[in-house]
Specification:
The complex is a heterodimer of chains A (553) and B (717). Chain A is 64% helix and 3% strand. Chain A has a two-stranded antiparallel sheet. A two-stranded antiparallel sheet of chain A has the order 3-4. The model of chain A has no long low-confidence stretch (mean pLDDT 92). In chain A, a hairpin with a 5-residue loop joins strand 1 and strand 2. Chain A folds into three domains: 125 residues, no CATH class; 209 residues, no CATH class; 167 residues, no CATH class. With 717 residues, chain B is of the alpha+beta class. Chain B is 50% helix and 16% strand. Chain B is built from 26 helices and 21 strands. In chain B, the strands form four sheets. A seven-stranded mixed sheet of chain B has the order 9-21-20-19-10-17-18, sandwiched between helices. In chain B, strand 12 and strand 13 form a beta hairpin. Classes of the chains: A mainly alpha (553), B alpha+beta (717). The interface between A and B is large, with 68 and 75 residues.
Chain lengths: 553, 717
């Protein structure tokens, strides 16, 4: 089977699987968050934690709960890393150094999973399971909860209440992420992903001699790593490691896992606001841009110039032979478009423009389809912006799903679109302008610039994938990276919740023939225009000095 | 203020003028006055005055441009070059052009304010000290008009100017209100009823009235008009504020993108000089819309003023664009003012000509519009000539009286007449007259009368009595409401725009339904009382809808205040004018539809230019980035898809385009983008193509064009 056919088949099957899940999973998620009933296990947990599940929170108190929960999570994870030598299953690992522990705590709580360490030589099993894996669940849960609160802003009328953060995150974890992870982990194990508590295996290597292979509870972590769009690998090699991702099937299934929730959430949105067409529009925009990026990466990797590379059938440097170009391009396009950040091939070795497309995926704001919850709320913020511009053009005060976009709403949406570029650009500029961070660059010239811009784009968009080629386990990158990840994640979430709060207070305006239709191809085109021009163009100078300078000869 | 009309007023579209004879409306377009080059020149000093940074601070986009211009000036002084000074010059021109746009927009209002001010001279009020309504004796005290207080009574006689706004409490007078309305025909103002309001600055032409002052000096109608047309009291509207937030954040993003570019440029060993960085910022931030935003708002208000509508706030104009439901009074808006004879229906074998003849005879002295219409119809249908009084010997006209509800004519035999009596009137009254005079009423008359009523018309029965004979019914005149021409199409347009029209009428539901069906209005409220109207507005608003209405009477005031857009007629009471948020000086209720269109056009203009401005950035990037870094990374020259001549010429061309496009779009900003009533989807598609896709392509063409010119200038080669 030629590479192209394999690629098209994989992609076709993937789209079919996602389409099959769109309605059932989307509807299920809507039911999860609309239901009045609590499961017994949830009620027990609410009693234990002293949570009043009936309480309906204002946006401010929803945000405070979310921040308090995340703050405690950072602290807990940091301490866990610092005392890991005293914990069981430490496998003889030393305490994680403080800067690195800070960076890792911030990284996992923000759903970024940027890793300035190698998992198998830094983290004991307790930290992996009780610390990192738990954050993989709850940080995805926080993203979904914030999205649901925003959607309630669109749903509700004349109220200042957006729901209950504790209930939302509990349900996201208990009813959605846990059950799906159990199923997913079983399938991954069946596909060959390991799951054990054996610290090391001594294996006789093919070439003679002995090799030490580290084991661990991998499958259970691998599944939520993809499903929750976290991306933090158990092993340093992440999904390129055969224990994490042994076969083309496991590769396909992992890609499916990272896409399934983000692509089904528009359905949940449509269901909750009572208009499924709205969901179809958003998912079409997501799908269109994601397919474009996957297509472009594949194209660039195949078209790589150079005799040796052409003979090998394209750019295979840094890619696993078992995945080939299609499996690697599909993974790279999906992991950067979903804020997952897991990698099965090394982006630093991609062709200049292949790597650039991956970079652009993140620069678009992680909205096509983006991370669990975060992707859709990001897209909704951009939709609000689009509605504003489009609504003016039809001669009415712009309204989205009957809610007017007035100065207050505009203020929050504008703050949202400012937050990420601010983190990315300022972080990159400081790293390039100061002398110490510059020393981390392993490749001088435009490629080095791309490495730094990539790092901050990844952290500022809570993706977590690394371009490699940049030594980031330094005081500066650990410290600045932690700050960037936290600000980009939580400032944005506060703005999202604030917008939800002001939307909920409004009385819905009935739709008429004079209302801007937000479910047609026209609006989709406008939305894509806003995403590409408004968001993408912010980074054009950086792209010109990085990938374009490198790739255009 | 004849000026408002004579100088810039565009004629009203035919379809909104009263009268059935008005031809069908041509394709309408809400437009404004064209840009006058002299006005541009006259506004230049104002544009320079606005360079004051404190003025610019109100507009974040242009403030950044001005700050950038100052920076480049400094830089050009230190490292002087043709390029540096060219960029500096064009950056200052960008700011100046933006100021010019605003100054031109304001200038048009200022000219109108000037003419208004001329009419507002110092008046001497003849105050009645201690007078109470009903007193017959009074003591006149002369005080300056500016010293009047609310509640004072003044007496105004023929030839005098009314010193302040107020209500007539005693007397009737004809008043020349041309200073405000531009209408030269005098109007009658009288105490009591809905025509009691007078406006300060207008002149009493005949008789004498006593007026109770209702506004403080300095807050009169004319004062408000002056400040409105001058834009002095202009506050940013909600949509404008929201748009400003968006523009400010875009500005911030691009400033950030350029500021962080310099460390990257340093790393790339190609640090840029200050002038180029400033030029890049100015090219990227949305200067086009930023420069024209306030001009668009001022011009929108101005377009209303040109149609003789005074909006008390920009917020009201914007709300007009958002309106979901229009409440329209039947009379004057949907139908022409009066009912007209539409048909003669004979009974009992009477020839229709005979009926028409008798009907005409009975209507000769009837000067009401209905009566005249009978004469006109008889002439049109049967060529029955109007007979003068001399041709009818012995004619004694019986005028209409509320008691008899009949009018007619007796041809008295004593004066040579035939003794014939003709009566015309309400069915029950004429029936009574027939039976009283020995006649019988045929059954078919009742059928005809009921049929006309059912169709929404008014039946008038005609009967005659020959000398010595019993009275007999001749037939029925069908009077009906005449629906204005073109109104049906208007309502269809409204429907396409998503606006529901509701007809308000005092008629019974049967009549109302018939007229509603004929005019194509979406809904109607029959036998409407002020309370019903109010209830309807509240019901609509509870569903989240915005309601617009017109009104003139005092009992309309609560509804006008409740409505989101309340247009008071200038002929109305001061209570109504106070309650509404707009006043129509022409007192033409149909104008509500135009107000809605102007409101929409205002928003569309803003949206379209914002889209245009953002779409422009793509081309500017392609012009400037290769120019900036092509030296150190020659590969970037491939991004120079316009093949611009040199780095200097590329950057300069982008900046020149950026400045000139502001000037080029001033007329569009003042006039508003072309607006044709249609559905939201059609409008969006059209504007995206023109301003989105057009805004993407146009700068590529223009920048290349400018480059072709300046490449020949030394210093850019």
């Amino acid at each position: 089977m030629s590479g192209a056919v394999a690629g098209v088949l994989q992609l076709g099957l993937l789209v079919a699987a996602l389409a099959a899940c769109y309605r059932p999973l989307g509807d299920y998620m809507a039911r999860v968050f609309l239901s009045d009933r609590h499961w017994r296990v949830e009620r027990a947990w609410y009693r234990l934690a002293g949570i009043d599940p009936g309480a309906d929170q204002r946006w401010g108190s929803y945000a405070r709960s979310m921040l308090a929960f995340s703050g405690v999570s950072v602290l807990f994870l940091y301490l866990l890393e610092r005392v890991q030598n005293h914990l069981p299953y430490a496998n003889g690992m030393a305490p994680v150094p403080s800067f690195l522990a800070w960076n890792t705590a911030a990284s996992f709580v923000t759903n970024t999973n940027w890793q300035n360490y190698a998992g198998e030589s830094t983290m004991g099993y307790t930290v992996q399971m009780a610390g990192l894996a738990v954050q993989n669940f709850v940080s995805a849960g926080v993203g979904i909860a914030v999205l649901i609160a925003l959607v309630r802003g669109f749903m509700r009328n004349k109220t200042d209440r957006l729901g209950n953060f504790w209930v939302d995150i509990t349900r996201a974890v208990v009813r959605l992420l846990l059950p799906l992870s159990v199923i997913g982990a079983v399938i991954l194990m069946a596909a060959g992903v390991i799951d054990n508590f054996t610290p090391t295996h001594l294996i006789a290597a093919v070439t003679g001699g002995q090799q030490t292979m580290v084991g661990g509870p991998v499958a259970s972590q691998e599944v939520i790593k993809e499903l929750g769009n976290n991306g933090g690998g158990f092993f340093n090699a992440n999904s390129a490691h055969p224990f994490e991702n042994p076969s083309p099937f496991s590769n396909w299934f992992e890609i499916f896992l990272m896409l399934v929730i983000p692509f089904a959430l528009p359905r949940t949105f449509g269901k909750m606001v009572g208009d499924n067409r709205q969901g179809y529009l958003l998912v079409a925009v997501m799908l269109g841009l994601w397919l474009t990026s996957v297509g472009l990466i594949s194209l660039f990797e195949w078209q790589h110039a150079g005799t040796a590379l052409q003979a090998a059938g394209g750019a295979m440097e840094g890619k696993e032979v078992r995945f080939g170009i299609p499996g690697s391009a599909l993974f790279a396009g999906s992991t950067t478009a979903t804020s997952t950040g897991a990698v099965n091939s090394f982006l630093d070795s991609f062709t200049t423009f292949g790597g650039m497309v991956a970079l652009c995926n993140m620069m678009l704001g992680e909205v096509v389809p983006g991370g669990a919850g975060a992707g859709l709320y990001g897209l909704l913020m951009l939709a609000v912006l689009t509605v504003f511009i489009g609504g003016l053009m039809v001669g009415r005060t712009p309204e989205y799903l009957g809610k007017k976009i007035r100065p207050t709403e505009m203020k929050w949406a504008a703050a949202y679109i400012l937050a990420t570029p601010f983190c990315v650009l300022v972080g990159s500029a400081l790293s390039l302008g100061l002398s110490v961070p510059q020393r981390s660059i392993l490749n001088p010239g435009p490629h080095g610039l791309t490495e730094i811009v990539y790092a901050f784009t990844s952290m500022g968009n809570n993706n977590g994938s690394a371009f490699a080629g940049l030594a980031t386990n330094t005081g500066w990158y650990n410290l600045a990276g932690g700050v960037v990840m936290l600000v980009a994640r939580f400032a944005a979430m506060i703005f999202v919740l604030a917008l939800g709060g002001s939307l909920a207070r409004q009385q819905k305006v009935p739709e008429s023939a004079g209302t801007l239709k937000t479910h047609g191809p026209l609006f989709a085109g406008l939305l894509v225009g806003v995403i590409v021009i408004l968001v993408g163009l912010t980074y054009f100078p950086a792209l010109a000095l990085g990938p374009f300078a490198e790739g255009l000869r | 203020m004849a000026g408002i009309r004579s100088r810039s007023r565009t004629p009203l579209p035919a379809s909104v003028q009263d009268g059935p004879a008005a031809p069908a409306a041509p394709a309408r377009r809400v437009g404004g006055g064209l840009l006058d080059p002299r006005l541009l020149w006259k506004s230049l000093p104002g544009a320079f005055q606005k360079l004051d940074p404190r003025v610019q601070l109100r507009n974040p986009v242009m403030f950044v441009v001005e700050a950038g211009s100052a920076l480049t000036t400094y830089s050009a002084v230190i490292h002087s070059s043709v390029f540096a000074w060219t960029i500096t010059g064009w950056l200052w021109l960008t700011v100046l052009f933006a100021n010019l746009a605003e100054a031109v927009a304001e200038g048009r209002g200022k000219a109108q304010a000037e003419t208004l001010r001329r009419t507002k001279r110092e008046t001497t009020a003849r105050k009645l000290a201690g007078w109470r309504p009903g007193d017959t004796a009074y003591r006149i005290e002369e005080v300056p008009g500016t010293r009047l207080a609310v509640g004072d009574f003044v007496i105004v006689e023929a030839g005098q100017v009314i010193p302040g706004d107020g209500d007539v409490v005693e007397g009737v007078a004809s008043v020349d209100e041309s200073a405000i309305t531009g209408e030269s025909a005098p109007v009658i103002r009288e105490s009591g009823g809905d025509r009691s309001a007078v406006t300060g600055g207008t002149r009493v032409l005949s008789d004498r009235v006593i007026v109770r002052i209702t506004s403080k000096p300095g807050e009169t109608f004319i004062d408000r008009m002056i400040s409105l047309v001058e834009g002095a009291s202009r506050q940013k509207t909600p949509n404008e504020v929201a748009l400003n937030v968006l523009l400010a954040s875009l500005t911030l993003i691009f400033v950030m993108a350029v500021v962080t570019l310099q460390p990257m440029a340093f790393y790339s060993k190609d640090p840029q000089n200050l002038i180029i960085l400033v030029a890049l910022v100015v090219a990227l931030i949305p200067t086009t819309i930023g420069a024209l935003l306030s001009a668009i708002g001022i011009a929108g208000m101005d377009r209303l003023v040109q149609r003789n509508v005074l909006a008390m706030s920009g917020r009201a104009v914007e709300a007009a664009g958002d309106v979901n439901t229009l409440l329209l009074d039947k009379t004057g808006t949907i139908t022409i003012g009066n009912r007209q004879a539409a048909d003669f229906l004979p009974v009992g074998g009477v020839r229709v000509e005979a009926l028409a003849d008798a009907a005409q005879l009975s209507s000769l002295a009837d000067e009401t519009p209905e009566g005249r219409s009978v004469v006109v119809l008889a002439k049109e249908r049967f060529n029955i000539r109007e007979r003068g009084a001399g041709e009818l010997p012995g004619a004694v006209f019986v005028p209409f009286a509320a008691q008899t509800r009949m009018s007619g004519v007796d041809l008295a035999p004593a004066a040579g007449g035939s003794g014939r009596q003709v009566r015309k009137g309400a069915a029950s009254a004429v029936r009574g007259w027939i039976t009283d005079n020995g006649g019988t009423v045929p059954d078919e008359l009742g059928v005809l009368v009921d049929g006309i009523s059912a169709a929404g018309g008014t039946p008038l029965v005609v009967a005659e009595r020959a000398p010595g004979a019993a009275a007999r019914a001749l037939g029925v005149i069908h009077l009906k409401d005449i629906v204005k021409q073109g109104i049906r199409e208007r309502f269809a347009e409204m429907r396409a725009m998503g606006i529901r029209t509701v007809m308000i009428t005092g008629d019974n539901p049967l009549t109302a339904r018939a007229i509603a069906a004929e005019s194509g209005v979406d809904d109607f409220l029959a036998e409407a009382t002020p309370e019903d109207k109010m209830a309807l507005i509240k019901r609509e608003q509870e569903g989240g809808k915005l309601v617009a209405m017109t009104g003139d009477g005092t009992n309309d005031a609560p509804a006008l205040a409740q409505a989101d857009v309340g247009v008071a007629m200038n002929t109305g009471t001061s209570a109504a004018k106070e309650a509404g948020n707009m006043v129509d000086l022409d007192s033409n209720p149909t104008k509500l539809i135009e107000i809605v269109e102007i409101g929409k056009q205002l928003l569309i203009t803003r949206g379209a230019l914002t889209t245009f401005s953002i779409a422009n950035d793509v081309a500017k990037y392609f012009a400037m980035l290769p120019a900036m870094f092509g030296g150190v990374f020659p590969g970037l020259e491939k991004l120079n898809i316009m093949r611009l001549h040199s780095p200097e010429s590329a950057i300069t061309s982008a900046i020149i385009f950026n400045a000139l496009i502001i000037i080029a779009l001033i007329p569009l900003a003042l006039r508003g983008v072309r607006y044709k009533p249609s559905s939201a989807s059609a409008m969006l598609a059209r504007n995206i193509w023109i301003y989105g896709v057009g805004g993407l392509i146009l700068p590529f063409v223009c920048i290349k064009g400018i480059d072709l010119i300046i490449m020949n200038i030394p210093g850019f080669r």
